[in-house]
Amino acid sequence: MRGTALILTVLAASCATKKQTANQTLTLKTTAGPGGTTATATVGAPKKEGIKKFSDLITGKIKADSGLFNTYKVDGKYYYEIPDSLLVREMLVVTRYVKTPAGLRTFGQQYGGEQLNEQVWKWERHDKQVFIRVPSYSVRADSTSDMYQSVKNSNLDAVLASFDIKAFNKDTTGVLVDVTDFYNGDIAAIGLSDDVKKAYKISGVDGARSYIDTIKSFPINLEARTLKTYRSGESPTDNSNGAVTFELNTSMVLLPKTPMKPRISDARVGFFGQRQTDYGTDKQKSEVTAYIHRWKLEPKDPAAYAKGQLVEPKKQIVYYIDPATPKKWVPYLIAGINDWNKAFEAAGFKNAIIGKEAPTKKQDPEFSTEDARYSVIRYFASDVENAYGPHVSDPRSGEILESHVGWYHNVMNLLRDWYLIQTAAVNPAARKAQFTDEQMGELIRFVSSHEIGHTLGLPHNFGSSYAYAVDSLRSKSFTDKHGTAPSIMDYARFNYIAQPGDNVTHLYPQIGEYDLWAVKWGYSWFPGNKTADQEKDILADWTNKKAGNPLYYFGRQGTSIDPRLQNEDLGDNAMKASTYGIANLKRILPNLEKWTYQKNEDYGDVSELYNEVLGQYYRYMGHVTTNIGGMNENFKTYDQKGPVYDFVGKGLQHDAVEFLNKQIFATPYWLIDKAELGKFDNGVMYNRIKGMQVAVLGNVLSQSRLARMYDNEAKNGTAAYTVAELLNDLRPAIFAAGKPDAFKRNLQRGYVENLRSLLTDDFRGFPGFPPQVLASFGLTPINMALSDIRPMVRAELKKIDAGLPKGGDALTAAHYADLKLRIKEALNPTRPIVNLPGGGVIRGINGEEMPKENTGKGYLNCWPRTNVDN
User: Which residue numbers delimit the DUF5118 domain (predicted)?
Assistant: First the structure.
């Protein structure tokens, strides 16, 4: 999710001083947060004029815009009157696009309403200047701790900008500063990201074509809207302009003087959060403390709450629907928001959350969808097939302050494709090119609930769907009650398991048992002014009582070691679930043209959906492959018995290989419908199927997977599924008796080349990451040069060579001769290895890195359309 706070620093020599002349410039060097890059912004420095009387600058005719800071506009200049009481107060600053040029294409934000930057500012006076300081919250110590001063000495707040004091107000309780050049300048903290600047070769702001549109002050926030034209060598629309123009809005919101009491995270319950290194504890080392992100909910009636009655919160969570949203979808988006009320009831609150239509200009002239005080579902006129749910939180405590859900128009096309491909075999209503508004509305409601879950602090729970037995998803009574998974935050998608005749009609996820549990854990209010550590103990007891029950299991996103933690899978057995899924794909594929018929339209829909069938089929292969060399991950505390990590059983691993042998290494000819392919395929489909076969094989034979299998064998002996058994199970399927056709010849070459890469390619992780960290994401390190993998691979290549038949027709004979040559070169390398899809970084025999194929670009968000998932 987006929303990482940026930390900006200013070079000491660049701050304006009295010695600067009118021709000098103020250079701010800004450094982005983790993974960011560095950019330099230059703003013309104003001529020194000394401190004047307030009335000389702000005459009686000029009316203040009263609020957080009183603001004034005088002859095109903008002034802030900063009261002493707000100096050194922390303020959250969020910059968003208001409008963007057509055709903008960058990784990440590109539409009006999307967030560019997030930062905390403190306005601080020093002598005759005011500075914007940017605090860091990565390390801390309580103010009563002996370490407090030491931490402060090593955690100096960076200076973002400086302003000369122009005047003191009438009663000298505040200062006046000119912010015109600051907001008009090229400041990374309130401007474009480095990615956008690089993409369009931006060299700086053109002041003649830029201006401050408005600065408005409200009781707890300031809203500054600017139009900025950047000089650029590229343009998304017209290079003859030599420029690209954006409208931006920067919200500055006063943070609470006393931060919300944080809630300490627990890896067994999924929440977004933040981490700090705390030097103020009684531990004999620094301690990393993690807090969850959550809204601040407190009961209006604490006494009634304590008695177990449902109580409304003091402040309701409110989401507004972008006025740009098509009216017919608004009720469904609101329903998706309001669906979370049943989860908050589990935490003791009623009417905790509500969705509303945004007020009109007549109803509230000051309302703005860019205003950081308001949470909004923003609707983007975009062909991107996606939606995402970020949130902005107080870095001191984890309190969620607002959210702007991003909703791209074409997510509807993605939903149409998935719903048809995953359910049409049992769902006649999905057998058409265009869904009814009611059908699409219910799918929108489902996605709305999922994205709102993220904005409440809940990440994806990839382990949730494993809680339901595969056969339960063929039961009408079960699915009517439970949907497809205990959590709407899983990537469970739609029910591809149900078969014709099962009469299953409830086909998508819903807010379930896990979601109610997670909200109860994160949002329950405890009376008695307990400390965060005291609450932690209570919550740990709750969690221990749920341990072992798969309904309440949280499985993190991002690891490929645990077959339970996969996106877009269903049920507790991937082999069984995928067999049902393939049976349904076989029913759907021959009917695509009939079901999507549209008069006077081309075959674009047939082509798109045919490719979706291939993508769904390939997902099933990934779901199954993860069982091989897989490990179950169950985070535990000292209070719980049993291992955190244990290996997938030998039988399941063997079943996974047998499934792959049957479903993909034996060519899936059912995917080749010549009549349909003739409508759109211009010669790529056969190669795509070949590529999938070899990619799955490469995934099975990955270094990290084999490393885990050897680890399993070392720990568990004959109870482990070994590499030797894996190769013995694969070889007969890949080198089956009989004349090999084009697919089998391709697969056999792929097998030899994958084995050869294991002989020549060393493990390449990410420098600086400890082995345990890499292994936790499935990149299990191994020293290939010293491992048992290479002796085993050499033996396997020799077995293949000895077993290759002789003779045959010219093509078959040439194929076997080629395989013998490849095996000889693998054992005695003389040329670089080929580039195989599905592998890691590919290197030649001299260590040179070779370009990767099949590298797709996607979005790091909720609903990317992908063909490869594991």
Answer: 51-100
Alpha-carbon distance 599 to 622, whole Å?
37
Q: Which two tokens stand for residue 779?
A: 């990149």
Q: What is the pTM of this model?
A: 0.85
**Residue 123, beta-bridge partner list:** 132
Concatenated DSSP letters for 789-835?
Answer: HHHHHHHHHHHHHHH-----SHHHHHHHHHHHHHHHHHHS--SPPPP
**Nearest one of 472, 568, 640 to 870, comparing CA atoms:** 568
Q: Which residues pair with 274 in a beta bridge?
A: 291
| Token digits of residue 331 | 């009720």
Contacts of 598 (CB under 8 A, 6+ apart): 433, 605
Q: Which parts of 189-235 fold into alpha helices (H)?
A: 194-199
Residue 230: closest CA among 203, 196, 268? 203
Residue with tokens 């049992």: 426
Identify the three-state secondary structure at position 745: helix
Structure tokens given for 461: 């729970």
CA distance 671 to 412: 26
Q: What is 232-255 written as a DSSP string?
A: ES--SS-GGG-EEEEEEEEEEEEP
The DSSP bridge partners found for residue 650 are none
- Give me the residue label for tokens 């009563």: 144
Tokens of 798: 């020799």
Does residue 589 contact residue 607 with C-beta atoms inside 8 Å? Answer: no
Q: Residue 805 contacts by C-beta under 8 Å, 6 or more apart in sequence?
A: 816
Query: Is pLDDT at 860 greater than 50 in this prediction?
Result: no
Residues in the chain: 870
* pLDDT at residue 201 tops 70: yes
Strand (E) or helix (H) holding 161:
strand 158-168
Q: Following DSSP, what letter does each residue of 418-458 receive, concatenated?
A: HHHHHHTTT-GGG-SSS--HHHHHHHHHHHHHHHHHHHTT-
For CA atoms 455, 456, 459, 462, give the dihedral sign.
Answer: negative
Q: Measuring CA to CA, how many Å separate 680 from each of 313, 592, 593, 607?
A: 57, 13, 12, 6
Q: Residue 25: what residue type?
A: T
User: According to the model, what pLDDT value does residue 10 have?
Assistant: 28
| Inter-CA distances, 674 with 77, 174, 308, 348, 435, Å | 70, 79, 64, 59, 28
List pLDDT tens digits, range 634-688: 999 988 999 999 999 999 999 999 999 999 999 999 999 998 898 898 989 999 9
Q: How many helices (H) and strands (E) would you count in the chain?
A: 24, 28
Q: Which two tokens stand for residue 359?
A: 């007020």
Closest CA to 13 of 22, 30, 2, 26: 26
What pLDDT shows up at residue 670?
96
CB within 8 A of 239, min separation 6: which ones?
A: 233
φ/ψ of 217, rounded to 5, equals -110, 135
Distance CA 356, CA 418 (A): 29
Residue 262 in contact with residue 513, Cβ under 8 Å?
no
Q: Which whole-number Å values give the CA distances from 284 to 278, 279, 566, 698, in the listed order? A: 11, 9, 39, 47
| Cα(544)–Cα(414) distance, integer angstroms | 39
Start-to-end CA distance of the chain, whole Å, equals: 20
Cα 323 to chain centroid distance, Å, stands at 26
Q: Residue 17 above 50 pLDDT?
A: no
The SS3 of residue 580 is helix
Question: In the prediction, which pLDDT does 199 show?
Answer: 84
pLDDT for 866: 41
Burial class (CB in 10 A: 0-12, 13-18, 19+), 542: middle
**Residue position matching structure tokens 């341990």:** 547
pLDDT, average across residues 173-185: 95
CA–CA dist 186, 625 (Å, integer): 50
Structure tokens at 33: 């947060």
Q: What does the alpha-carbon distance between residue 265 and residue 590 come to, in Å, rounded to a whole number?
A: 50
For residues 754-770, average pLDDT: 89
